[in-house]
Hints:
The chain contains 6 helices and no strands. By secondary structure, the protein is mostly helical. The chain is 73% helix and 0% strand. The longest helix has 25 residues, at 7-31. The chain has 2 domains: 1-82, NADH-ubiquinone/plastoquinone oxidoreductase chain 6, subunit NuoJ (Four Helix Bundle (Hemerythrin (Met), subunit A), Up-down Bundle); 134-175.
Amino acid sequence: MTPLLSVEGLAGVVFLGFVLIIILGALVATHAATLIRAVSGLALCLVGVAGVYYFLGSPFLALMQLLIYAGAVCVAIIFAVMLAEPQGVKKFKKMHPLAGPGAIAAGVLMAWGLAALAFKTSWPEAATRLNPGALEDVGRAMMTTFVVSFELISLILLVAIIGSLVLGRRGRSKV
């Protein structure tokens, strides 16, 4: 048992803090009454995932998580909500009385199974030194091997932006 004020203890507290942010964001996203609050919960959850990536020693992956998912995906969802018809919102029907307890039981069973698997697995020792060329390798691969895919993704994003501008200029009810 490590004391709380040691390096390992504080690292555990930081990791649990990120996990709590993920859980809080997921709860807000799934229990929100409005779609904007649900997207805010999703963004909070994705920021927590980026924190876990950073904690695990991958700052590049954490930054990409923030830029792509927490930034671009959530902004795209908010744009879709703004462009949607306001009359299109339908009320949800009442859930079956066993749906909530069943979902909780399934979640607990899955968490128990994953925890049991994690404790029975022999984990390799953590690397003491990170690969210094990993970021350079990613950049080199994106600009040589995967340059066509990279450019196609940028074209698809450009078409999506132009399409949203056309829809926004015409107005929602004139399409």
